[in-house]
Specification:
The protein has one domain. Helix content is about 60%, strand content about 10%. Strands 2-1-3 form a 3-stranded antiparallel sheet. The termini are far apart.
């Protein structure tokens, strides 16, 4: 019985620790997520300083609530702002 109690307490501690560290790393996680989301457009932007995006209607919305026509246009805006690495919000596709 003591073993199961100890395992239960360890499980609760582990879950709480995971939640706290995940919240603290949110900014880094978001930056890495945005980096991955926009990686397919990075070389085109770096080569010419801009992206040539279509107006294809495939909406994406970031966590600030701003809706973009498509992922390419969202990444173009993020690259132009120069904030790709410093985002403090999450991104949802």
């Amino acid at each position: 019985k003591q073993t199961s109690t100890a395992l239960g307490l360890l499980s609760i501690f582990t879950l709480c620790f995971y939640v706290l560290t995940t919240q603290e790393r949110g900014t880094l996680t978001t930056a890495l997520l945005l980096q991955d989301v926009c990686s397919e457009f990075r070389s085109q932007f770096e080569a010419g300083g801009r992206l040539s995006c279509t107006r294809e209607n495939d909406p994406v919305r970031d966590s600030s609530g701003k809706q973009h026509i498509n992922k390419c246009l969202m990444c173009a805006e993020k690259f132009r702002e120069g904030n790709l690495w410093q985002q403090n919000s999450s991104f949802c596709l």
